[in-house]
Amino acid sequence: MTTPQRWTIVIPVKRPEHAKTRLADAVGEHRPRFARAFAADTVQAALDCPPVARVIVVTDDDEAAASAVALGAEVVADTPDAGLNAALRHGAAVARSADASAAVATLSADLPALRPAELARVLDAAAAHPRSFLADAAGVGTTSYAAGPGAAFEPAFGGRSRAAHRLAGVVELDLDDVTTVRRDVDTAVDLWDARRLGVGPRTTALLAELDVAL
Ligand SMILES: Nc1nc2c(ncn2[C@@H]2O[C@H](COP(=O)(O)OP(=O)(O)OP(=O)(O)O)[C@@H](O)[C@H]2O)c(=O)[nH]1
Ligand SMILES: C=C(OP(=O)(O)O)C(=O)O
């Protein structure tokens, strides 16, 4: 029997004052609190996923960093300060500085409904390919990009990243039953859908506290 692949997960968290701009119409001034709650629920679910060995959060936000560390993740500063792909490459480099052959996968920090068992299915499928990705619920972007041991880590996030990853020869994972890994939350409708799936404790508490109507 082969040993299941273990993964380092890199989660990028933008400075919340600049994040989740498309949620502004639904949550107004509370936008940064939602960005942090989504990130914390994403980190928690990743840490609770059996094939996950390490979670590295890349952020310059002190609050997101403190909450990630309290949950058991590692945090590195976004030293490149050059956007999402640079932040991810930095996190992967940190992962591979300790173990050059580490398998590294990214997760967007806006997956508040993420379930560990569904993430495990994605990672198990990713283990069959040098490089792979999972499309987001809209079928336009990407919520997870994975590079196995020895594979180059070259994410192409931003805008229509599903097409960009396919064009780059990254294998698209064709999986059912991983809805919560695909459910990124950018808009009020996305948040409604995530709530229907069941969001994590921090997002649940914030929705209750603010009595957000969706
Ligand atoms: N560390 C880091 N994370 C980033 C950066 N840009 C985006 N992210 C993260 O990447 C993921 C996707 O982000 P985006 O969709 O670009 O932005 P967003 O804040 O989620 O939403 P919008 O403001 O509505 O575009 C989220 O987890 C962000 O926190 C960056 O420059 N540095
Ligand atoms: C940056 C991306 O995501 P979002 O849908 O959050 O813009 C992406 O999918 O490449």
List the bound ligands. guanosine-5'-triphosphate, phosphoenolpyruvate
CATH superfamily: Spore Coat Polysaccharide Biosynthesis Protein SpsA, Chain A
* CATH topology annotation: Spore Coat Polysaccharide Biosynthesis Protein SpsA, Chain A
- Proper CATH architecture: Alpha-Beta Complex
Question: Could you tell me the number of beta strands?
Answer: 7
Please provide a written account of the structure:
Guanylyltransferase that catalyzes the activation of phosphoenolpyruvate (PEP) as enolpyruvoyl-2-diphospho-5'-guanosine, via the condensation of PEP with GTP. It is involved in the biosynthesis of coenzyme F420, a hydride carrier cofactor. Its EC number is 2.7.7.105. Keywords: GTP-binding, Nucleotide-binding, Nucleotidyltransferase, Transferase. One of its GO terms (molecular function) is phospholactate guanylyltransferase activity. The protein is an alpha/beta fold and 214 residues long. It has helices at 24-27, 31-47, 62-71, 84-98, 116-126, 161-167, 179-182, 188-197, 201-210, and strands at 7-13, 52-59, 74-76, 103-106, 131-135, 142-147, 171-172. It has one domain (7-204): Spore Coat Polysaccharide Biosynthesis Protein SpsA, Chain A, CATH 3.90.550.10. Strands 3-2-1-4-6-5-7 form a seven-stranded mixed sheet, with helices on both faces. A hairpin with a 6-residue loop joins strand 5 (131-135) and strand 6 (142-147). It is globular and about 45 Å long. The mean pLDDT is 95. The site of phosphoenolpyruvate has 8 residues, from loops.
